[in-house]
Amino acid sequence: VAPDGSIATAWWQAGATNGAWPVPYTIWGPGTAVSPSPIAATSDVPWRIALFWLMPDQSIGMSTWDSTAASIIWTNPLSLSAPGAATTAIAATGRKPGHLDVFWVTTDGSINTAWWDERQNSGAWAAEFNIAPPSSAMPGSLSALTRIPEHLDLFWIAPDGSVMTAWWDGPLTGPNWNAPFPIAGPGSAQGAVTSISREPYHVDVFWTAPDGSILTSWLQGGGNW
Fold first, then answer.
1. Number of DSSP helices (H) and strands (E) in the chain, helices first
2. Cα atoms found within 13 Å of the Cα of residue 166, Cβ hemisphere only
3. Is 192 within 8 Å of 182 (Cβ atoms)?
4. Residues with Cβ < 8 Å from 180, sequence gap 6 or more?
5. Hey, which of 74, 101, 122, 147 would disulfide with 197, CB 3.0 to 4.6 Å?
6. Mean pLDDT in runs of 10 for the chain (225 residues)?
7. Are the C-beta atoms of 111 and 137 separated by less than 8 Å?
């Protein structure tokens, strides 16, 4: 997101442009986003990119690019949430082809989500809903990942410095999310958290501690953190 609220991009493709990054270009012009704005990108299939950011009315905006579309341009921005709800953190993931999930921290510290599935709701985005109550998250701390197609993991930092997580598993929980719980106690973290799944059934989480050190925890299969 540029200082004027426009959204820009750059890309790299092996075998193209002699291995160099092409010149960045603007997707959407000034005033498209709050500046500064959190921004998140994900892909559910190799030919599609989904981009999420904070709109000037404080709603979650999104746009997609699809190389198979008749006109290979980014789609018009769409608001996925009510105005005035979002703050400084957005996370997104494409856990299987034709499905997208986006998460954000609201102004009261709760965590909301919305999802899209090309096979449901006539291809429209489902209504946003809450998965963690008010005062759950510090601003700016949110990370989402998928390790298998029917499972989602979400991580954030609580106001007391705990590292929190919640998960969803289609076969186990149906439409409901498991209740949030800590993987590191109060005073453990401050400001930033990120996560990765390097193989199915394995998760690694990293965060910054109040003294500037970097800590990690991991989960394998159905075991303990």
1. 1, 17
2. 22
3. no
4. 131, 132, 136, 164, 165, 166
5. 147
6. 95 92 94 93 96 95 91 89 86 96 94 95 93 94 94 97 96 92 96 93 96 96 86
7. yes
